[in-house]
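[Discussion] Sanity-checking designs against the backbone

I'm trying to build intuition for which residues belong where. Below is a structure token string of 79 positions. I'd appreciate it if someone posts a full sequence so I can compare it with mine line by line.
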């Protein structure tokens, strides 16, 4: 389920067009395309990793600001 920040942006390829997602048993944050994150699961991150939880913005504290953002998602969606 997504959190309260459902805003969209026309700048695809940036953190504003992606939500932050996490694997069920992991701490690593992943970038999930906003259009997919706003829909029902399953969700898949930009790097191809399935995620179980989507919450917050990729460019915020739950994504790039987290303690362990995915390196491949960071490369693909710099924020």
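Best answer:
Here's mine. Compare freely.
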């Amino acid at each position: 389920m997504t959190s309260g920040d459902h805003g969209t942006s026309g700048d695809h390829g940036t953190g504003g067009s992606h939500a932050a997602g996490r694997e069920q048993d992991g701490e690593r944050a992943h970038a999930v395309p906003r259009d997919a994150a706003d829909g029902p699961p399953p969700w898949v991150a930009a790097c191809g990793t399935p995620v179980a939880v989507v919450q917050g913005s990729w460019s915020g504290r739950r994504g790039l600001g987290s303690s362990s953002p995915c390196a491949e998602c960071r490369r693909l969606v710099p924020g």
